[in-house]
Specification:
0% of the residues lie in helices and 48% in strands. The chain is mainly beta.
Amino acid sequence: QVQLVESGGRLVQAGGSLSVSCAASGGIFSNYRMGWFRQPPGKDREFVAAITGSGGRTYYADSAKGRFTISRDSPRNTVYLYMSNVKLEDTATYSCAAAPDQHSYSDTYYASLNAYTYWGQGTQVTVSS
């Protein structure tokens, strides 16, 4: 059984920081690229960040650059998204996803929803004023 389980979402004030986590099990290995996506209320799901299976390369959406950091802990099979200086527009359901990591593919490819095979249920992050 392949499972991606997110945790850590909560209510946070604008300007604050928080970290969300994604625990992978049931066949997700180190050769999978992991991505974070989010879906704000009333909007489509959008790409946030991705990290290679080795953890040596990261890619961010423009909205996340300079504020968010994606990382992974291979022994624990867990990926993290650290969010700093959060804004009201960061309010969304944050979902973790896994995709086979092909080195010949571009970073842009892994910003696409269709690149990913497995998805978690998501964790809610709400930013208050």
